[in-house]
């Protein structure tokens, strides 16, 4: 089971591990304290949940552990030398490593099985073990690292049992769920719990939207299903928080609302084909919302537009706040990548943005997300500033500002395509210092208006104060051109 580190959990829960669950059928009676029994439900689902074992040949040169050696002159010297050489006597032996996980059948006729990508990642051989003791070799149909999902295919020699994918969106916090999986290689194991939370972001990928459950899931449960009480899969168990390696009642499952589209694309194309907008975004904080005149802190703030991307035509601009995408609300920044990725490539969609304090609707045509498309963006502009002259400076909000010329570009190693007003010094006791603004940063815009001289910065700050604003929204460019938005208090 793969270990992941959750950035949001920095204390006793530093280590996070991957986990699992199973399948579907009859509804069951419930009492006020929980389900009276899950025996009938589990009986109809166990056959659809499988154990997955993988093996991988690792070359001797890839060994990370030190080679064992016998003392010089030891009678065991020949044994150790022979053991650590390959069959040709030319070097360290290859070795075979194996791992165990879980999965479940979603298409009995075609032999389609869903599991986690990390269960089968790098495997040379994949074997599926069924509840009746039978085993089948499996081939990889496709895998997606961003959601940690994989689809396998076996050739059935007798009828298989399948389970349906249910509606995870209808599940509520407190609903009972059941997991079936292969913890520690023990085979089909049933556990019951509730949904503890929804929409969890554990920093494991760009589309985190996990269901949290207290159903006991452990190492080896990865890739197994999480069932509702109607026997429908509403999640694929993927990770746990555990300082000890065992269950402490905090587990995470990929919801079917996210997994379904990925599974269908893997089955059809053998890969994912996600929509791509071509923007870099950051959260809308209370300070940013106030500086833009927004009543609520919501949406995704566009920090930059990627050159050559789908919206590099001016339809969406840096400083826009995206609040609605193709009819779906964007309440938080992390909502946008998910809804864009789930949209078909080439689709024309309406995007509602807040620009200059007003809502505007623009139509964009989505591109296809390729590896590296989200790697960065660039800005364009010409060199501004006199050659060989000392730049004029002003002090504003604890920052010493100067016009951007050849000398300052050389001093701070600022790229030629960055334009604006360079910050040459920052008062360590200022709000600007608290926001980690540093010498060499370049002010590109203030309150969505471009600035090129220190005087323009001063004038924009004065105008914002006159309008009753408490914060100034600065678009800053780093020396290499990467953009970010920062709010600075003006009182």
Please name the defining characteristics of this protein.
491 residues, Thrombin, subunit H, Pdz3 Domain, 9 helices, 14% helix, elongated, disordered N terminus
CATH-level-2 architecture of the largest domain: Beta Barrel
Query: What count of helical segments does DSSP give?
Result: 9
Low-pLDDT segments, ≥5 res: 1-32, 61-68, 372-391
The strands making up the biggest β-sheet line up spatially as: 9-8-5-6-7-11-10
Strand content: 25-35%
Number of domains: 3
Largest sheet: 7 strands, antiparallel
Q: Write down the overall geometry.
A: elongated
- Helix vs. strand class: alpha+beta
Mean pLDDT: 81
Strand tally is 32
Could you tell me the CATH topology label of the largest domain.
Answer: Thrombin, subunit H
For the record, what CATH class of the largest domain applies?
Mainly Beta
Question: Distance between termini?
Answer: 52 Å
Gyration radius, rounded: 28 Å
State the helicity in percent bands: 10-25%
